[in-house]
Amino acid sequence: MIAVDCEGVKLSRFGSITMINIGTHDLVYLIDILKIVNSVFDNGLRTILEDSGIEKLMFDCREDADALFHLYKTKLDGVLDLQILEVNNRAHEYRNGYTKPRSFKHCLELYVKDLSLLNIKLQGQARMKILSAIWEKRPLDVNMLKYASVDILVFLNSMMHFVLIWFIVSGKHPQVGIVTLLDQKTGCSVMAMASYQKA
Fold it and tell me: Of 33, 63, 96, 170, which is least packed with CB atoms within 10 Å of its CB?
């Protein structure tokens, strides 16, 4: 399982991807798409992102998927969207069958509770408000590199948190099922994790 996140300006088919961040529990790779451009996709990145056998943790991957598909002809597959997983973990809070998805910042505050990571995110967001095209600037500021790395680290920690919460609440070992959803706009599949108990 890897964590994946894209950075860019107006991240979508109408904007740009300037960096793709991929990581494991041990390492985070920040891939500078502005410098490498298409060659990184042709030399293996597209294969990884499209491989349904490689689970990819992302948070609200809609804009990332839209940009990857339309700008680089890369169809994300095998994505476990943590925003959907977080909503699933709050199923008991549903009112009339509906609950509002939480932002990444809100989830970071609720589940990770690491003030240093939260401060890195807040400082980065403040810089992006001042300079909207900050992701196109080279060399990138060290603080923005840290900002890009935080998402990857938090995705992996959040995944463990959600599985642990299920275990604590239910008192039983989770049986995890993956439900594949199809994004009609991009044609990309997104996996949502559903926890259930064997009968």
Answer: 96
What pTM, to 2 d.p., does this model score?
0.80
Backbone angles phi, psi at 192, to 5 degrees: -115, 140
Q: Of how many residues is the chain composed?
A: 199
CA distance 106 to 86: 11
Separation between Cα atoms, residue 4 and residue 9, nearest integer Å: 17
The residue type found at 107 is: C
pLDDT in tens, 156-182: 877 766 665 555 555 544 444 444 444
Angle (CA) 193 195 197, round 5° = 150
**Structural domains of the chain, ranges and CATH numbers in brackets:** 2-196 (3.30.420.10)
